[in-house]
Every structure is written in structure tokens, then in C-alpha cells.
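2024-03-11 09:14:02 DEBUG pipeline.ingest accepted 1 chain
2024-03-11 09:14:02 DEBUG pipeline.ingest length=244
2024-03-11 09:14:03 DEBUG pipeline.predict start
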Amino acid sequence: MLAVERCTDAAGAQARRDTLGARGTFVAGGTALQLGWNGAAPDLTLVDVSALPAARGVTRHGDRLRIGAASRLESLRHDPAVRAGAPLLVSACGEIAAIGVRHLATLGGNVGWRYGDALAPLLVLDAGAELADGRVVPLLDVFTQDPLPLVVALWIDTRTARERSVFEKAGHRAAFSPSRLTLAIVDGPDGTRLAAVGAGLAARRLRAAERALQHGGLADACLADLGDPVRARLARRLIEGHLG
């Protein structure tokens, strides 16, 4: 039987999910969660985090932007602070699903799915993940944990908005089907950062490809990063097309 429980604070939500173990999961909009159900809803307890005060809203803290994980993707597209401080994320949000889905889907849900298109820009922006205990850790470190902890908010350095950035999504139909490859590029004074995600491809930084831009061998580097010849060729073409 599918059940829903609501918690009043982030620490309580994390503790409840920990107690439930494999029988529980976090939910906010629920759009990504349903993709894995294949028909009938599973025997699962959903810990609803959509109304957690700490997970809502967008605030500016000096050069950093704090985006609550319960923020709806469509609202982020139009938020003035996000548009000014994280335009690459805004570009990604506009390419995720249809507008009706974006009114329900949350940034935290896109992250928690592990395959969400927003992950590529978040990784190249070196986003931090605020956890239920208040710690902020590199978002990439969150994916070393299974199950994923509750991400309450994402932190982004707004100075990256001055760097050249690119978001590319390659699929059968750009917004309405899982992407074959979603690629994000940030080209700044300290070098180029690359990240990718896709259907069945967990989000990752393309470290070998980043090094290859300095030393050569991009084709082999993309294959080392992605492990799939088709995706590797696609990534190489996109990178070369934008960076030369």
C-alpha cells in the first residue's frame, strides 16, 4: 500500500526515511518518482518534503545563491535572482519536460532521481548541497551515498554567471523524452568544466575530457568518461562544436 507522511522539519524527515529504510522515499512533486513505477504504485511510504520551510524559496547571500530544493522548476525559470545568478540552470529548466510537469517538478526531485537534466549544469557550477543537518557538501559527493540523503537546498556561486556557459540536450524529442545525452559546459578563466547526464547515465563530471582539452585526445577521453561509444562521439562533437 502506498502511504504519505508529512514532516515539519528537515531533520525529522531524514530520520523518518532512515527508519523506513527501503520502504520509504522522499517526495515533493513526484514527477520523477513515478517514472520508475511501471504501472501500479509500489508498497512504499512517501515522506513528503514539499512543505518544509527550509526547502522553499530562493535567497541571495553575498556571491552565493541558495535555492530551496522544493522550488518548482517552472518558478526557477522566472525567478529574477536565479536568472541573474545562474542562467545556465534557467536554460536547463526550460528544457525539462512540458510546462505542466515543470509546475509540479522540483529541483530536489530532479537531483534525487540521479538522471535529471538539471544535474549537468549544477555539477559544472560546482553546486553545494545543503543536507538536513545543515552541512553544505559538494553535490557530487552526495551521489556516493545510497540511498541519497535529503537535499534541502542547492548553493551556487553567482560569479559563475560571468563565465561562458552552454547547455545541450540531445534526444529523440528534446523536452518530452529522456535525453540520450545532456551536456553542460562552463568555460572560465580557471579552465573548462564539463558534466553530463542522460537516460540510464548517472550524472557525472567529465574529468578526462576536461584534461583532454588541455592535452589532446578528446575522443578517447569522452569514451573513458562515458563508457558508451555512441554517447562519447556525441559528447565530443558537442564539445568541439562549442569550444573548437
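2024-03-11 09:14:41 DEBUG pipeline.report The domain at 3-160 is CATH 3.30.465.10 (Uridine Diphospho-n-acetylenolpyruvylglucosamine Reductase; domain 3).
2024-03-11 09:14:41 DEBUG pipeline.predict end
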